[in-house]
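>> Question from a student workshop board

For tomorrow's exercise we were told to take the sequence and the ligand below, predict the bound structure, and bring the output to class. My setup keeps failing. Could a helper post the expected result so I can at least see what it should look like? The ligand is zinc ion.
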Amino acid sequence: MPQYVCENCGFVASLDKRLYICPVCGDPLTIMFDDKEMSFIPSGKGVWRYSSMLPITGKGAISLNEGGTQLHQSVRLYREIGVGSLMFKNEGLNPTASFKDRGMTVAVTKAFQEGAHGVICASTGNTAASLAAYAARAGIAGYVVVPEGAVATGKLMQARAYGAEIIHIKGNFDDALKAVSSLAMESNELYLVNSINPYRIEGQKTMAFEIYEDVGIPDWISIPVGNAGNITALWKGFKELYRIGVAKKLPRLIGVQAEGAAPIYRAFINGASSIEPVNNPSTVATAIRIGKPASWRRALKAIRESHGIMVAVSDEEIMSAYYSLSSKEGVFVEPASAASFAGLRKLSTQGLFKGNEMVVAILTGHGLKDPESAAKVPKKELTVEPTKEAIAGAILSPARVFR
Ligand SMILES: *Cc1c(COP(=O)(O)O)cnc(C)c1O
Ligand SMILES: [Zn+2]
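>> Workshop helper replied:
Here is what the output should look like for this input. Compare the format with yours to find the bug.
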């Protein structure tokens, strides 16, 4: 049977208990399978297509048909980066428009099976939106705790519309997660669905399986890193495919953090064995505005094991990548997602790529989530009289107002 394992101290426990973090050292727990317990027999669609690799079956799953997202082939930006092929894994195409749904379907299904009265999370926005949708679907209460004034409007509106109860705190995400996780650990009623919940990671690892089925094993995969659950999940998925002999090699990972919230990047660059938390994380990419990532240890391990690299990008680099993706590729994502392309762009100028690599950038969430950021791109807009001449004048005039 799969069991909980602490990758830090070696603690082991049965999945029968409700555990999130290691009772000995406090690190998030991992659900570990023996090689012979895993078989890669994809069947059906989306996340539950990979039930044979998951700790619970898809029977009676609380699902909104998450996963099965597209890989878009880059038509322009791959040349700028100087690689053979660049693909965008568009996680914005999930039901609530971020990758969080992959983990949420598994975690909320587990909560439902356990008879939990409600699910709760701390969130920078997308976990809240996702929790709210799956709680509605399950018919159980949803509670989300968010940093006041620091959540993109689209995400907050989603949580509201799905009927969740929203608690704003006068603090940042790290404060919220600390409070919410200690509350959930004392309560049988409230089931915690942050990415310290090992079932979240299980759902999210299916992203690796989809990439494998679509294109095999890329040379590099770039992914934005906030609380570091998703990079943990991505690496877990690929390693499992490799361990059971399905995949013959492993990709190298590129973890991207925002300069104002880059504790894992700093630890990587300094060759340190632990992170130095950032007390007041700041970045335009609110989804990765996290100073004390819960899964930092597993993220560092993933980067090092994969012979990968961490990179930090400025808000300017993020916003430039954001506009490049939408205006040059037709792929509209939120700023945190654009960080993964910003990281590739930066590493490319530093000479990382030789020219024939296959690279996948994980684009974690949809652009409509964050209208405040969309309002910052260069505007090509004009108001004119409602006549053919006026419109022609705007488009065709020698003054060429749009150029
Ligand atoms: C949650 C989130 C991230 C960060 O993922 P972690 O698992 O916290 O590292 C990045 N981008 C978006 C859009 C997100 O919602
Ligand atoms: Zn431990």
